[in-house]
Design a protein that fits this description.
There is one protein chain. With 496 residues, the chain is of the alpha/beta class. The protein contains 19 helices and 18 strands. The strands form 4 sheets. It has a 7-stranded mixed β-sheet, with helices on both faces. It has a 6-stranded antiparallel β-sheet with strand order 6-5-4-9-8-7. It has a 3-stranded mixed β-sheet with strand order 1-2-3. Helix 2 links the parallel strand 2 and strand 3. Helix 6 crosses helix 7. The protein is globular.
């Protein structure tokens, strides 16, 4: 399909009249015409395009695919979005500027809705949001950003905006705009201020229509060095020692959104020294890594973690990263590969490092295999950092001091969030990493081999090292976060 420049039909006209541009040259245009299309609309199409045309009949599904393919090429640009916000003031002004029509895409063009989408994504990137949630409710629509791990509502426009807004997003993500009963996943690639941003789009049917979640993937936020992760000096030194070992499995564990992928990528950047064949299996691939072979899982065709892991073993990898160990089959293949004398990195969804060992035993991995192959488990959380402009000191009470094992002489003040313009009235700006690391030494290996309980493993592993809870306490003492934030992210019983 040629991408010649020239006048084009508006998306709303093409969709409603059943006419779409398939190909274009300087002399003629090829139009796809949906079965049952309005024949009188062809004269209007010729007036707009100002070129003679040929016609190709298309059934409904073929027309929808061509429509999505043609109009998905209109990306979001930072210049357009910034200009729209500069001209209209803010997101609320963009919404107010949208005409009060029954169908917002019935006009001559889709500029108001496109400007709103541009503004939403541009503002989300500006505010360092990780996700944009668009949810229709009974009378209105909710637009929320996830900033520093917490959702913040930014717009509550009329529900009439939901259908055209979501329809347009689906077109940009190359999804089937006619399918509203099933969940769909797609991607939008865009550039803002010279930065490449990938937007993962997911749709889901709900009571009042489809809801959309857009995850913003900015490579600059993911590719951090180990020194930039926020580990304390002792944990960082121990983690480097683990990565220097020639074999065994290293696991990263924690809830969704706790930074596991960033930690894995940072570890891979250390291992990828140009002399190793580093291969990853991911679902999905979130960020492209230079010099590393990355494979996207596709469960619809049987491309699962276990099946693909077996296949890549024939490609002579030196280091393998498995996005997640979800089942016994994947776990067995990963441990078998690690037993051959090469390192494996992966994630497991558990609340603590000791819990990951118990989870693998519950899956069916034999204790002696675990003891022989497991090298380390690192659990992590992200706590919000107090805004330096508005945080306020307060005197800690005896219960707070006792909770963190502190004396009144150990700390002068704790700090609380207040909220100001600089932090969007949240009281927080940015996040800090909190970690606990279990390294499998001879004593712990014997305990795992003898099927020791999770509590016994926890007590043995952290007899001389910090748990998540005690590691987070250093940020409270230094005034970087609040007691409430640590309690939100780290449970007290993880301290045991």
């Amino acid at each position: 399909m040629n991408a010649q420049t020239g006048p084009d039909l508006s998306y709303s006209f093409a969709r409603d009249k059943g006419i779409v541009v398939l190909d274009r040259s300087d002399e003629a245009v090829q139009l796809g015409v949906r079965n049952g299309a309005d024949p009188f609309a062809l004269s209007e199409a010729r007036r707009v395009l100002r070129l003679p045309f040929t016609l190709q009949a298309m059934d409904g599904s073929a027309f929808e695919r061509a429509l999505t393919e043609h109009y998905a090429r209109e990306g979001v640009t930072g210049d357009e979005a910034e200009a729209a916000l500069d001209r209209d003031g803010d997101l609320a002004s963009l919404v107010e500027g949208i005409p009060q029509t029954a169908d917002l895409l019935d006009g001559d063009d889709d500029a108001p809705v496109i400007r709103l989408i541009n503004g939403l994504i541009y503002e989300a990137v500006n505010r360092k949001a990780s996700d944009v949630h668009i949810e229709p409710h009974e009378d209105q629509m909710s637009v929320r950003y996830r900033i520093d791990g917490v959702l913040q509502e930014v717009l509550t426009p009329s529900r009439r905006l939901a259908a055209p807004l979501i329809s347009r997003i689906k077109v940009m993500a190359r999804l089937d705009i006619a399918e509203k009963r099933m969940p769909q996943d797609g991607r939008i690639s865009l550039s803002i201020g010279g930065r490449s941003i990938d937007v993962r789009v997911s749709t889901l049917p709900s009571r009042y229509g489809e809801r959309v979640t857009m995850r913003l993937l900015d490579t600059r936020n993911a590719l951090l060095g180990l020194d930039e992760l926020g580990m304390d000096g002792a944990t960082l030194a121990r983690f480097r020692e683990v990565l220097a070992q020639p074999n065994g499995i290293t696991l990263v564990t924690g809830p969704t959104g706790s930074g596991k992928t960033t930690t894995l990528y940072s570890a891979l950047s250390v291992l990828n020294n140009g002399e190793r064949n580093v291969m990853t299996l991911e679902d999905p691939i979130e960020y492209g890594l230079e010099g590393i072979s990355q494979t996207q899982m596709n469960h619809k065709v049987g491309l699962t973690f276990a099946a693909t892991l077996r296949a890549i073993l024939r490609h002579d990898p030196d280091v393998v990263m498995v996005g997640e160990i979800r089942d016994l089959e994947t776990a067995k293949v990963a441990f078998e590969f690690a037993a051959t004398g090469r390192p494996v990195l992966s994630t497991v969804h558990t609340n603590s490092a000791a819990g990951a060992i118990q989870r693998l035993r519950d899956m069916g991995i034999e204790p002696y295999v675990l003891a022989a192959t497991l090298r380390a488990v690192i659990a992590q959380r992200l706590v919000r950092k107090l805004c330096d402009h508005c945080k306020r000191p307060h005197e800690p009470n005896p219960d707070e001091l006792a909770m963190f094992g502190l004396q009144a002489s150990d700390v002068q003040a704790f700090y609380r969030p207040t909220g100001c313009m600089a932090c969007g009235n949240s009281g927080y700006a940015g996040r800090l990493g909190v970690y606990e690391l279990i390294t499998v030494d001879s004593d712990l290996r014997e305990l795992i081999r003898n099927d020791g309980s999770e509590d016994q493993i926890q007590d043995q592993a952290f007899a001389q090292h910090d748990t998540l809870f005690t590691n987070a306490a250093r940020y409270i003492v230094s005034g970087q976060t609040s007691v409430e934030e640590v309690l939100r992210v780290c449970r007290r019983d993880e301290e045991r």
